[in-house]
């Protein structure tokens, strides 16, 4: 589209000196950070303190007014980045499950304790950086004002991990994997009612196709007899799995809401801090008896390191796919973890690949393609709960707000010397 399109008429006025984006009376910092802006007139009105909002409005209008085909979003970098990120996350989950299998094979079953190291690593990496970016005074203010919100997020996340692992102890693998579909259902329902997300028919069709692919995968497991047989207590295990999947769905929606409003490093730092506290208490209570019969040697230490490393990468990348996509597309991507699990299983545990596995994988990927058909050029990165022009959102990596700011600068809709986003 021509840069001189009349539909994107914007007159630019450069201020005599830069105008820094203001914060609200509560010290809210989520919308911008360290961004130097200018006085801009968009669609005939001039703003000073709202200069960033004007630039975002101009950028969004230009992006959304472009003529697009049904396949346009599939040609964007964002789409392929979401696919790639999704497969990296699926591999991380597969890796963590593989290391857990190694630990279980030597009777080292400590689900709460082994996850504790991940939360500790998140704290070690992201807390110092958060304090560096915000300073002690602002950090204490955030902790006082929003600490309880982060505690709830961490609590849901820890309990989701705990009950899902617990489900595998009582039920068979087939039942536990079938219950994972419930996480997708929870995400769609919660996003619809709480975040005001409105799914198009093609998006629902895409999700259903992905679930169909997962069904093919599970059917092949059943045919091969790799569903784990009868569990110790199927009803109890299924209830644990249902609870774990529900908690995962709540966590994913809650985290998507958080990372759209807050810097990713801040969310991860608080997730780590409260995760250590909550998980530590659970490990002390529920894993204490498991330590006596557990095996402790160099191999176990290595498996714990591998498990922690996979989970740390997973947690670090999740906020990015939640910004660029959504909680729904994040959960749909994870359906391919079972496929990668079989690939690794052929090398590590001697599994054989059934002919239905490639069909299942193709169906899941095809479902993700269908999900984004006839969508906007911004995909799911534009969040409806952030208000007009994403004014309540952070201008961070992967967000529609940062894309709009960059587009405004690139197309000459806003002459800014610097458009800086907050990760």
Automatic annotation (TrEMBL):
Keywords: Membrane, Transmembrane, Transmembrane helix, Transport. The keyword Cell cycle does not apply. It is a multi-pass membrane protein. It is found in: Membrane. It holds the Pfam family SLC35F. The chain crosses the membrane at residues 70-96, 108-129, 150-168, 174-195, 202-219, 239-255, 267-285, 300-322, 329-349, 355-374. Its main location: membrane. PANTHER family: DUF914-RELATED (PTHR14233), SOLUTE CARRIER FAMILY 35 MEMBER F2 (PTHR14233:SF4). Belongs to the SLC35F solute transporter family. This is Solute carrier.
């Amino acid at each position: 589209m021509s840069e001189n399109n009349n539909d994107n008429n914007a007159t630019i006025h450069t201020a005599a000196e830069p105008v820094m984006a203001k914060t609200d009376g509560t010290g809210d910092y989520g919308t911008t950070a360290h961004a130097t802006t200018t006085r801009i007139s968009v669609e005939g009105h001039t703003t000073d303190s709202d200069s960033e909002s004007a630039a975002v409005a101009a950028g969004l209008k230009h992006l959304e007014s472009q003529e697009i085909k049904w396949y346009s979003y599939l040609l964007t970098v964002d789409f392929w980045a979401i696919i790639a990120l999704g497969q990296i996350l699926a591999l991380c989950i597969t890796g963590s499950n593989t290391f857990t299998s190694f630990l279980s094979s030597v009777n080292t079953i400590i689900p709460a304790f082994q996850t504790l190291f991940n939360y500790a690593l998140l704290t070690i990496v992201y807390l110092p950086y958060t304090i560096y970016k915000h300073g002690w005074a602002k950090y204490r203010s955030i902790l006082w004002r929003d600490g309880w919100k982060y505690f709830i997020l961490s609590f849901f996340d820890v309990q989701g991990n705990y009950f899902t692992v617990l489900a595998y102890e009582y039920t068979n693998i087939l039942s536990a994997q079938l219950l994972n579909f419930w996480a997708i259902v929870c995400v769609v329902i919660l996003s619809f009612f709480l975040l005001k997300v409105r799914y198009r028919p093609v998006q629902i069709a895409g999700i259903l196709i992905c679930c169909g692919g997962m069904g093919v995968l599970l059917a092949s497991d059943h045919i091969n007899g790799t569903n784990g047989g009868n569990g110790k207590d199927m009803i109890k295990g299924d209830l644990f799995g249902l609870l774990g999947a529900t908690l995962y769905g709540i966590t994913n929606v809650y985290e998507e809401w958080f990372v759209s409003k807050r810097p990713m490093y801040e969310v991860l730092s608080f997730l780590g801090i409260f995760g250590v506290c909550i998980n530590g208490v659970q490990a002390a209570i529920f894993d204490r008896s498991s330590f006596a019969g557990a095996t402790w040697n160099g191999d176990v230490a290595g498996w714990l390191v591998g498990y922690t490393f996979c989970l740390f990468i997973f947690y670090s990348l999740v906020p990015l796919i939640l910004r660029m996509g959504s909680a729904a597309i994040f959960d749909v991507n994870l359906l391919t973890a079972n496929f990668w699990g079989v690939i690794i299983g052929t090398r590590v545990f001697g599994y054989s690949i059934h002919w239905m596995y490639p069909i299942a994988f193709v169906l899941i990927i095809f479902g993700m393609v269908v999900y984004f058909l006839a969508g906007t050029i911004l995909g799911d990165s534009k969040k409806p709960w952030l208000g007009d022009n994403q004014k309540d959102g952070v201008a961070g990596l992967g967000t529609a707000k940062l894309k709009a700011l960059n587009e405004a600068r690139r197309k000459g809709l806003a002459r800014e010397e610097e458009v800086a986003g907050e990760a």
